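Your task
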Amino acid sequence: MSAIDLYFNEVSRILDTVRTTQRDAIEQAAQAFCDAIAQKRNIFAFGCSHGGMMAMELFYRAGGLIPINYIRAPGMMLELTPITMTSEMERMEGFGDMILKNTPAKSGDVLFIHSVTGRNAVPIDMARTAREMGMTVIVMTNLNSSKSQPSRHSSGTKLYDHADILLDNCGCIGDSSLKLEGLAEKTAPTSTIAGAAICNSIVARSIELMIEAGIEPPVFLSANVEGGDEHNARMLEKYKDNVFYM
């Protein structure tokens, strides 16, 4: 069987596992988003390196929720040269705490934070500080990977130890899913596909909950369709007190 078919089969298996095992956690995360928007509280999203792609998946995109704020920080999104510096910076204790404290985040707000292994200091510190501040912390991780590796934080904890709501992307250890004959290393990561599916299912369900509650969902329209700019401007104005990226 071709690697193409092997990969699609594995992705299908993982997505089925996510749907059956993570449904309750997705529901809880969607309710947290819905409640925050209904109560005009703030929502933030963060991740390091490729983990940050899921924070970006939730941020400023067609079909997404307008009040979700992506937390940017130097060295956290593969923008440095040499690129290995980003791996070193993700392990710096105290930096995650500093990043969060320099946002408008406060008690009652929601933080969505993603790390596949959850072993490095920046996401751990950020999640721990967020809970101390009284925020609701939604963690997405890969429990197989996280539980197989030691923490790099002096506390000995992992990201999942600091979650109010815990989402598992149900991937394999090391993320890459395929062992191909003739190659010692595995290939074909699954965390991006599974993570994006989880993120967008949370958004879709939170929108459904808002509709059920009689709330107009603050959803971005594509700026490339007629009426998109006008709709988005109206929603950005309505939620201007919860939007920190404009």
Observations:
- The beta strands are 43-47, 68-70, 110-114, 136-141, 165-168, 176-178, 187-189.
- Residues 34 and 209 are 7 Å apart (CA to CA).
- The longest helix spans residues 191-212.
